[in-house]
Amino acid sequence: MQVIMKKDEAADPLKSETHEITSKINAAYEKLALKLRAKADKAKERAGTTKDEAKRAIHRRRFELYGDAAHDIEERLALRRAPSDGSDD
Running DSSP on this structure, what letter comes out for residue 10? Predict the structure, then answer.
């Protein structure tokens, strides 16, 4: 992942470090969300193919839990990526 910085950010080591770490954290959020979304999809698929009602209920619940967790992380990631108004500097 290539990070493009503004000229003044390159001059300020603190801003540069902050930008670099923030990018790494966002990438980790994204990776985790993708893993959880994949687990949710797998559970949904299994719920559709399982014949035993109890196991089907377990897979449906897994789908809900993994899907909710992925959604929460994706929302948080969207907030982190939203442009800041600069008021928290």
Answer: H
pTM of the model: 0.74
State both tokens at 85: 């108004």
Q: What single string gives the DSSP state of each residue in 14-83?
A: HHHHHHHHHHHHHHHHHHHHHHHHHHHHHHHHHHHH--SHHHHHHHHHHHHHHHHHHHHHHHHHHHHHSP
The answer to whether 26 and 80 are in contact (CB under 8 A) is yes
- pLDDT tens-digit profile of 9-54? 556 899 999 999 999 999 999 999 999 999 999 999 999 999 999 9
Residue listed under structure tokens 């470090």: 17
Token pair listed for 88: 């928290």
Tokens 């982190």 locate to 80
